[in-house]
Specification:
This protein has seven helices and 41 strands. The strands form twelve sheets. A five-stranded mixed β-sheet has the order 1-35-36-37-38, with no helix packed on it. The chain is of the alpha+beta class.
Length: 809
């Protein structure tokens, strides 16, 4: 009876494999799925007839499948799963002691199958200790001291965490070392705070809690997805004050998040001399009397210390850091409307999602537009405001880069200019702010870009802090058609070269390149080359660049092959292989999107690196990163010339995602996934790496995270298989030699040995940790590590509202 049931199951499985297998073979793909399907069907028939030959054929099929698996992928255990796990499971059922009792005849076939299964299971155990992606090594501490850099570098943050990246250098590094490789296992929860700010029915899908809090002025400052600012007691999590800017949620918003706030101390501010009063009226003898100028005098600001924040709906505001009250002398009773003089505004088309940069006496911000909603978009202007008054000081508009003076009344910023939406970095000694520009929307079509657009798309621009004038720029990709933004805050540190310390800036990119440049002039420190790429496209008037720049330090994945397709069974793997063969893919990251069929974009637009950036140890010159790998399918769809606002993918009244309304094409952007919702590319989908920046060499590499909280057929996978998972968030490094990250799609905060990548500690989170951990010393003398755990709506992690602090017992 049991043999019959297993035979029926095997027959159904055989037919399910044969269907895509035949299609794959006809598409010039692997023919093994046809062989497997036919072999399994014949085996199933014999099992249903209760013939011992069914066992013999099953053993041969297992041997053939295993040999084919080793030939294709070697001893990569995760790639064994789709090829043989299901067959091995059926074989194990057949090998149960009571199952062969149903056979009409007995012989050595049962023993052959049991022996085959035993060997495969034994090799599976061996494969568990083999990982072809692993790089085992140990980062070395720096002992030689190079000469100081000419410009000097600000001190590392110690007890406080004073800016989004720790300081304005964007290093995400702390000089605290109480928590170190020996003590980190003693971390326990010190407190947990719930903000109460949860997703509502009026919010967009991409509702995310991505904040990196500040610890400064004796308080812990953070913002929630609805841009509510809270000040907490750092040692207890108790709320000291809270301010709600009364954001009106909109489902049209592409993003609903707040990654951080900024701090300014103006307590030592002295006002400029008061201008003389107007001359008095002429006397009878025709003379006038000019009063003397008033001497400088201290001004009692309502906010001697202030928190600077923004809103998703385009407002900039300043709060008293001690009380949470609006700063009345800033803008219009505390607010500056960032939409004033902005052109081409549509509903929720302009957003602020990243922490403002506060440097010297200025607030410097970029902005984000709704990618691919409209053909005509508002400006990507960069603006600098006086931190005390909110008055605009200068602008830099990539659509008009030589004019940095504030606009006159009645003028507007340049429409459709490239944007810079992430947080900036600054070197106050050099007097430069580093602005990582992204693409110009619509991201996948470059037919209408001007020469000014072209030179700033995906460029790092170094601007003069005082004037906004361009000092230098470096372009990280040419004629971007893939949404290859520079999404990360640049990281500044000094690197040794030829016996001297060179002031460097590191620029992570979605394409996987890490550009290491001299931050004084933009010249490469690590080598840069160019590669020839494909330019053929069926999009009219599109002219892809024939070359693209490549950094010697990169985590751009190797080209995809059919054998790299994944799944949990031969069925969805065959379907993924078929989809791979049917898509256009030119074997490099720059396959142009087209109209006729989908183009495989690898890496996809979530990027190898994103807003979480990288973290460094500026003392030892180490870099810790979490590259990720997901492919996407892009396809352009033409719109009728007489109706350029026709919806192709979305309904009226909803956000027009990827419609490019007003343009000749909409763009379909889909995750390249199997029918079960899992990525079609083989894991790892996320890694953690350790790099020696003195050489540019990757010293160690580990899979990062497990699939524990991933959903398969709507249910969370319960087993924490360490395949390596997407990590959307940031990383913290410390002088204690410990790196913290919680960005993976499983709900954990983890601590790693920075030298080797060894996992030292982990804690289960109540929700997704798509944020950046920070650390500080409390008034009690103890070192704390804090993470926001509120999840990410678009990537499907658990939503919540927790802020959790850990400390040593």
């Amino acid at each position: 009876m049991f043999v019959l049931i297993i035979g029926v199951i095997a027959a159904i499985l055989a037919l399910a494999i044969l269907y895509p297998g035949v299609q794959l073979a006809m598409a010039d793909g692997s023919v093994f799925y046809v062989v497997l399907g036919i072999g399994l069907l014949i085996t199933a028939i014999q099992l249903m007839r209760r013939k011992q030959s069914g066992y013999f054929l099953f053993a041969l099929l297992l041997i053939a499948t295993f040999a084919w698996t080793i030939w294709e992928v070697g001893f990569d255990k995760w790639q064994w799963i789709p090829r043989g796990a299901l067959l091995t499971f059926l074989a194990l059922l057949l090998c149960l002691p009571f199952v062969p009792a149903g056979l009409k005849t007995r012989g050595k076939s049962v023993k052959l199958l049991r022996t085959t299964v035993a060997i495969i299971v034994l090799l599976g155990v061996v494969s568990w200790f083999v990982d072809p992606r692993l790089i085992d090594g140990e980062l070395q501490m720096q002992t030689a001291q190079a000469e100081p850099a000419a410009a000097g570098t600000p001190a590392f943050p110690a007890d406080d965490w004073v800016a989004y990246g720790g300081n304005n250098l964007g290093q995400r590094y702390s000089a605290l070392n109480d928590i170190n490789v020996d003590t980190v296992k003693g971390l326990t929860v010190a407190w947990e705070h719930h903000t109460g700010d949860l997703k509502t029915e009026n919010d967009t899908k991409e509702f995310t809690f991505e904040v990196a809090p500040l610890k400064v002025n004796g308080l812990l400052y953070l913002c929630t997805p609805h841009n509510i600012v809270e000040a907490l007691v750092p040692e207890t999590g108790e709320v000291k004050w809270k301010f709600d800017p009364e954001l009106k949620p909109s489902p049209f918003s592409q993003h609903q998040t707040c990654r951080g706030v900024s701090y300014n101390d103006s307590s030592d501010f002295v006002a400029a001399p008061v201008a003389p009063a107007a001359p008095t009226a002429p006397a009878t003898d025709g003379t006038t009397t000019a009063p003397a100028a008033t001497a400088p005098a201290p001004v009692a600001l309502t906010c001697p210390r202030r928190i600077i924040s923004t809103t998703v709906d385009g407002r900039l505001y300043a709060l008293n850091a001690d009380t949470g009250a609006l700063c009345s002398e800033f803008g219009d009773n505390g607010f500056v409307d960032l939409l004033v003089q902005m052109p081409m505004l549509h509903e929720s088309s302009y957003m602020q999602t990243s922490a403002p940069l506060v440097t010297k006496n200025l607030i410097i911000i970029g902005g984000s537009v709704s990618d691919n909603y409209y053909e005509d978009n508002t400006s990507g202007v960069i603006r600098a405001y006086d931190v005390r008054t909110g008055k605009i000081v200068w602008k830099f508009d990539a659509g008009k880069p030589d004019d940095t003076a504030p606009l006159a009344s009645g003028e507007t910023y340049e429409a459709n200019s490239p944007t810079a939406w992430t947080t900036f970095s600054a070197d106050e000694a050099l007097g430069l702010v580093y602005v990582p520009f992204g693409n110009k929307s619509p991201d996948q079509f470059g037919m209408n870009r001007t020469d000014d657009d072209a030179q700033f798309v995906d460029a790092l621009a170094a601007l003069d802090i005082e004037t906004g004038k361009l000092r230098w720029k470096f372009q990280t990709s040419y004629h971007d058609l893939w949404d290859r933004d520079n999404p990360s805050q640049p990281t500044l540190l000094d690197l040794p070269k030829d016996g001297k310390n060179v002031p460097a800036v590191i620029v992570p990119t979605k394409g996987g390149n890490l550009w290491v440049l001299n931050r004084q002039d933009g010249t490469p420190i690590l080598p840069v080359s160019e590669q020839q790429v494909s330019t053929e496209t069926d999009v009219p008037n599109e002219k892809p660049s024939p070359v693209q720049p490549i950094s010697s330090l990169n985590f751009t994945p190797a080209p995809l092959r059919e054998v790299d397709m994944w799944g949990v069974s031969p069925i969805d793997q065959a379907l993924c292989r078929l989809a791979f063969k049917q898509a256009r893919y030119d074997g490099n990251p720059f396959t142009p999107p087209g109209v006729g069929k989908p183009s495989l974009v690898w890496p996809g637009n979530i990027g190898v690196f994103n807003w979480g950036s990288i973290a460094v140890d500026p003392v030892n010159k180490w870099l810790i990163g979490t590259p990720q790998y997901l492919p996407y399918l892009y396809q352009a769809y033409p719109r009728k010339p007489d109706d350029l606002n026709a919806r192709l993918f979305t309904k009226e009244g909803t956000s027009p995602g990827n419609e490019n309304l007003g343009g000749p094409f909409g763009i379909s952007i889909l995750n390249f996934r199997s029918g079960l919702g899992l990525p079609c590319n083989t894991p790892p989908w996320g890694e953690m790496v350790g790099v020696d920046l003195t050489t540019g060499k990757t010293v160690w590499k580990r899979r990062n995270g497990t699939v524990q909280d991933q959903k398969v057929l709507g249910y969370s996978w319960p087993i924490p298989l360490p395949m390596g998972i997407l990590a959307h968030g940031g990383t913290l490094t410390t002088a204690g030699g410990v790196s913290f990250t919680a960005a993976t799609l499983d709900n954990y905060l983890r601590a790693y040995n920075m030298k080797t990548g060894e996992k030292l500690w982990q804690a289960r989170l109540p929700a997704g940790g798509q944020a950046t951990p920070v650390t500080y010393r409390g008034a009690d003398g103890k070192q704390y590590v804090v993470i926001a755990a509120g999840g990410h709506g678009s990537i499907g992690t658990t939503l919540g509202d927790s802020v959790i602090a850990y400390r040593l017992n």
